[in-house]
Design a protein that fits this description.
The chain is mostly helical. It has 5 helices and no strands.
């Protein structure tokens, strides 16, 4: 069985991960772009008008692929003791002054990773679906113009 949406989803997800490696703060934008690219590629490969459900599912899975890749890279990069120490130093420096005493940051480090991983997944999925829907509306509008001309 050959799925025409598999390659666009994987490409869009890897595109999100690659752009996030280059500029991490742009995750919101990169997820939108990744969902958009995945739907555009899927539309070109299938040569069909994309339905709303198809575009949402493409965006969902593109966001999942991209977010999981980002999370894996994050876990791999912080498995180094030096990187963990630098993260703890940043947390100590930026810890709110109101919260006293400062907890043992070595103990809460796994919680920080789990929380940030879940946030990355939610952000990636949400904004990738938005990008996929934008691509669907733009692509369907262009296809309707081409059919009516």
């Amino acid at each position: 069985m050959k799925d025409p949406y598999l390659k666009p989803v994987i490409f869009g997800g890897l595109f999100i991960a690659l752009l996030t490696i280059v500029f991490a703060l742009g995750l919101f934008l990169w997820a939108i772009v990744g969902g958009y690219v995945a739907v555009r590629i899927a539309t070109k490969t299938t040569k069909e008008i994309m339905t709303f459900t198809d575009s949402v599912l493409i965006g969902l899975f593109t966001g999942i692929v991209g977010s999981v890749c980002i999370d894996l890279l994050m876990v791999i990069s912080f498995s180094s003791v030096d990187n963990q120490k630098s993260l703890i130093r940043v947390l100590e420096k930026n810890w709110p002054k109101d919260v006293q005493p400062i907890p043992n940051l070595n103990e809460i480090l796994p919680t920080v990773f789990i929380t940030s991983s879940v946030l990355v997944i939610f952000i990636g999925i949400f904004f990738s679906v938005i990008g996929a829907c934008i691509a669907m509306f733009i692509t369907n509008k262009k296809n309707k113009k081409n059919v009516s001309v």
